[in-house]
């Protein structure tokens, strides 16, 4: 009997297959379809706050949305694809907040107050955005969420480089500033994740937020005072 040789699937093909399972089955183009997808994401965001990510399933989503399960599967192949879409929408709204912030051309001379304002804006958005806390507090359970969060942090660091470049008088290259803003974003992301998990203890949460602001200001002030090597 001839030996059966299993064909090895290239890793790139595996990645494409995985990505297809976590993406929209069809991108809505008509207004009604776009509105339906956003409605589904609104339902899921509310369910995240009510029952958490683990208790959500496609039957529950369809039931709460008042749509046939088949209609849900027209756009999303599974629960994880829907959670990914909710997460992407969260990050789009974070980026929109930052872009609007940059358009206002804030006063860089008062950069310490600028840091306070930015952290407060992030905190307010995180608390007011439905489903944000339960989804991103457990992002490490989903590799796809970790991946899009990492890419988004890079984009936020680029925004902050444009915002803060110039407050360190001796720094001449944006590449140097970008290394610093990457550190600032990663530290803030980690501390804000803890802040989200401690949100029920207001005194502790307020203290965490204040210490984050202090760390970021001390970090930048160190380089302002140090001068070029």
Automatic annotation (TrEMBL):
Residues 1-27 are annotated as: Disordered. Keywords: DNA-binding. Gene3D superfamilies: Tetracycline Repressor, domain 2. Pfam families: TetR_C_22 (PF17928), TetR_N (PF00440). Residues 57-76 bind DNA. Residues 34-94 form the HTH tetR-type domain. SUPFAM superfamilies: Homeodomain-like. This is TetR/AcrR family transcriptional regulator. It comes from Leptospira sarikeiensis.
